[in-house]
Design brief:
Elements lengths: L16 E4 L7 E6 L15 H15 L5 H4 L1 E7 L7 H17 L3 E5 L6 H12 L4 E5 L18 H7 L9 E3 L14 E3 L1 H7 L1 H12 L4 E5 L22 H12 L3
This protein binds manganese (II) ion.
Manganese (II) ion binds next to loops.
Length: 260
């Protein structure tokens, strides 16, 4: 497949910008950016994350580190999704529409926020496209199932909305990294592998437990950087102590990928 056969049109009408491609990779990925921070309650600024990640990635590309995504995947930079700044409903609608268009092209979506609400429109599009329930692997210091706290969807409620709407199989989904002393709100919807538990048992154990929980379901992975210890990710909306580090994350994914 050639890049220009994908028929992806940027919402801004621009050209596809290839990030890079590994010829042995099977699936094309669209790196899709969501500059949205309208549901951040305390610290905003997540709308600037897309440009910050692009800038930071220059160093990894230059250094040829083993974490260069475009060296492992067939990818294009799809650009930022365009929506009305500050309009929650337009952001949800335009994002779902953009992701639906990408999926119809046979391309997978790698979505970067943005505040913690971003799984809501993205997984809605995936769920409708696949016509069934997805398992989620959810990295987070929080359950994001605090539906009773807000009268509208936020970064603290999306787990409930996706489950209630039927796009996610909560019984076969997992949240990793919750710090139990800070949890409150209604009962968790997903299986919980809390921070202390996974630190005690290690990343390989956590990966094996994850695979048992999700079974043969299709999986969507979502990563809140506050999963990481506050010393490693201090600039997130809600920094939390007593979390895992990046070494844990890498070892977890190596263990996960070692199993088909
Ligand atoms: Mn969180």
């Amino acid at each position: 497949m050639r890049l220009w056969d994908l028929r992806i049109i940027s919402p801004r009408g621009g050209e596809l910008r290839p990030l890079g491609a590994n010829p042995t990779a099977v699936t094309w990925w669209a790196w899709t950016w969501l500059p949205w921070d309208g549901t951040a309650m305390a610290r905003s600024g997540q709308r600037f994350m897309p440009r910050a990640i692009r800038e930071a990635s220059i160093w990894y590309g230059w250094a040829r580190a083993p974490f260069v995504a475009s060296g492992e995947l067939k990818m294009v930079d799809y650009g930022d999704v365009l929506f009305h700044p500050g309009n929650l409903w337009d952001y949800l609608e335009q994002t779902e529409k953009a992701v639906t268009g990408i999926l119809e092209s046979g391309v997978s979506v790698f979505a970067c926020g943005g505040d913690r609400s971003i799984p809501l429109p993205v997984v809605r599009a995936y769920g409708k496209r696949l016509g069934g329930k997805l398992s989620l692997i959810h990295f987070d210091a929080h359950s994001d199932a605090y539906a009773e706290l807000y009268p509208y969807p936020t970064g603290g409620t999306w787990v409930n909305e996706l489950t209630d709407e039927g796009w996610v199989d909560g019984g076969r989904s997992v949240t990793l990294g919750v710090r139990p002393t800070r949890e409150f709100g209604k009962a968790d919807v997903f299986h919980q592998l809390g921070s202390e538990m996974i630190l005690d048992h290690g990343p390989v154990w956590a990966a094996e437990r994850t695979l048992e929980i999700v079974g043969d379901n299709r999986v969507y992975i979502t990563f809140d950087p506050d999963f990481l210890d506050a010393s490693q990710a201090p600039a997130v909306h809600t920094p939390e102590p007593l979390g895992p580090d990046m070494r844990f994350v890498i070892k977890y994914f190596n263990a996960l990928m070692a199993r088909d």
